[in-house]
Design a protein that fits this description.
six-stranded mixed β-sheet; about 35% strand; 4 helices; alpha+beta; globular; about 160 residues
Length: about 160
């Protein structure tokens, strides 16, 4: 252990960060028996193929993790965000997911998701000074998959 070196890197490069992320990804794959997240994105385009919004997430073990949702400021409050979430939920159902989870530091986003049927299940108060970290979920009603979802437990192997 005496031969180890530790370096503080103030502004790491993407390559330096990817070494750490790849190591963690490899460990995660070992833990899930090789089951990797399936990434998904839905993009909303306006005139001239300009991207005005989008949603990014991944599915893993019958759950959709909605990791990012963005709508350009001039296109907000027009239903674009709700439609992006609806389409992500549709993808989740088609992929056999039982639920969707999302987290946010934005209280307006919490209200938005609650209007779409999501429920707060965890709050980490003052996670970043002045901001609560909120976790929300929504069960997806599925014919034929409901029994599978009800049986799903904690740490079982797929």
């Amino acid at each position: 252990m005496n031969s180890l070196t530790y370096r503080h890197i103030a502004d790491p490069t993407n390559e330096q960060l990817s070494e750490i992320a790849n190591g963690l990804d490899t460990f995660g794959l070992e833990q899930t028996g090789g089951e990797a997240p399936a990434r998904v994105a839905i993009i909303c385009e306006g005139r001239g193929s300009d991207v005005i919004g989008g949603a990014i997430g991944h599915t893993l073990r019958q759950r959709l993790f909605l990791t990012q949702l963005w709508v350009s400021e001039k296109n907000r409050s027009m239903g674009v965000g709700a439609e992006l979430v609806r389409r992500m939920e549709e993808h989740a159902r088609e992929s056999g997911c039982c639920d969707v989870v999302v987290d946010t530091l934005n209280l307006k986003a919490v209200s938005f998701y609650e209007r779409l049927g999501y429920q707060v299940y965890l709050v980490n108060p003052n996670y970043i000074r002045g901001f609560d970290w909120c976790f929300l979920s929504k069960a997806l009603g599925q014919s034929g998959a409901e029994n599978k979802c009800a049986k799903r437990g904690g740490n079982e192997k797929a």
